[in-house]
Amino acid sequence: MRLASTEKDPAFNVDKEIALRVLTTQHERQQNAEISFLSCFRGTDLRRTLIVMGCYCITVLSGSTVRAYATYFFQQAGLDTEQSFNMSIGLYALGLLGLLGTWLLMPYFGRRTIFFWGQAVQTVLLLIVGGLGVAQRHASKSDSSLAWAIGLLLLLSSFVANLAISPILYALVSEIPSSLLRNKSVVLARFSYAVLNVVANVITPYQLNPSAWNWRASADLFWAGACLLGTVFTYFSVPEPKDRTIAELDLLFERGVSAREFADTEVSVRDIVDGAEKLE
């Protein structure tokens, strides 16, 4: 009862909720008797596993490693050491404000909606920063306005990432898998994230370092393209799990409902098992 939001739903019935969860688990066992890592890649669970893996990887594709190297990035963008450090502190402060802002957004907006628009805005910000980086190569070294513009936009991108991408990820990866395979799906998703993150952390210093690829701020053009890929993936593949029970999500995936139609498609838990009137 402590986990239930009785203020939002005064008619909440804990016995009915537990009965529904039991029936949902029985239904999932009928659909897939095995509970193994291989089961995550069979039937409808394959689609669900690929979605959570993609969602985890999107945090890297949205430029998380650039923000991780923020102080060095600011230096390569043209700010001095002291200002680069100060800007990095501001970046983490805005990231914290973004996380707090997520608490306000999630009760009113769907996870898919926030996740998608967060990436769309992030793509634009990274594209602008990358464009300014290109312009900076042809500008006078005494002109610091571009360096400050790049720095401020990177601060804004940190706010957007922590408001609408990173925290929403954890809701999606916990809600989209089936209840029986959730832990294994999350493990696979986290593994895919770790692999991609290793690659990103290897190439990012090469992108920023003047003695290597020397892309500097224009490296964000690369991450803008990566973030765009994540945005497209979200639009076509990531469904809306908000306000859906586990049973409803199971039915939607079993029927092959498009990710874009999840929020508007009506399903009934009566379709799961005969005699569902026991839940009344």
Automatic annotation (TrEMBL):
Instruction: Note whether NADP occurs among the keywords.
Output: no
Task: State the UniProt keywords alphabetically.
Answer: Membrane, Transmembrane, Transmembrane helix
Top-rank taxon, per record: Eukaryota
- Provide the topology term for how it sits in the membrane: Multi-pass membrane protein
Q: Which Gene Ontology terms cover its molecular function? A: carbohydrate:proton symporter activity
Q: Name one GO cellular component term.
A: membrane
Q: Where exactly are the transmembrane stretches of this chain? A: 50-69, 89-109, 114-134, 146-173, 185-206, 221-238
Secretion signal span: none
- Pfam families attached to this UniProt entry: Sugar_tr (PF00083)
Q: Fetch the InterPro entries from UniProt.
A: MFS_sugar_transport-like, MFS_Sugar_Transporters, MFS_trans_sf
Where it sits in the cell: the answer is: Membrane
Know the name of this protein? Major facilitator superfamily (MFS) profile domain-containing protein
Q: What is the lineage of its organism?
A: Eukaryota, Fungi, Dikarya, Ascomycota, Pezizomycotina
